[in-house]
Known about the structure:
Number of helices: 5
Strand content: 15-25%
Structural class: alpha/beta
Order of helices and strands: HHEEEHEEEHHE
Amino acid sequence: xxxxxxxxxxxxxxxxxxxAFMLLIFFLITxxxxxxxxxxxxxxxxxxxxxxxxxxxxxxxxNVLQVKLNKDDQLMVAGEWAxxxxxxxxxxxxxxxxxxxxxxxxxxxxxLPLFGSVMITEKHVISVQNDVGTSYEAYLQVQNELxxxxxxxxxELAQSKFGKSLADCSEAEKDAITQYYPQKISExxxxxxxxx
Length: 196
């Protein structure tokens, strides 16, 4: 070894790689990852025959409740401007049609388990359409109010028929109530009425 030259100690690279790997695992385990959630919707079963499919396409105007949101998050229900606080009551009246109003969904007789023959508005549809500029918060508020309308009607029916809340009903009772008030929310393709 020459005078004045010293050996420079080498860094052990294997321990550095191990530490980096351990840190990577630590951050992967401790980091919370947000998962996107969608809206729960049950799609209707496909029609059994072609004739039924053709009949389903023709929906009477009185059986459809038009709910529209514009780019400014303003709500229109059945052609009239409305506040989000009014939507649930309007939807409940539309779904149940308690007074058999000629402007609301038509009622027909159906034999349901645990209920027998009852008059229901099975052919009703709530059509939701929004502008491409509608805020996500307003869209979710509308969806929540519509689902809440169904839930309130079902709970009221459970109380009057079975004397208990919907949550306390048996599976057979819940199924009968769901058939009495089937949830029919249709999503129309968003329109662009104006820029934002």
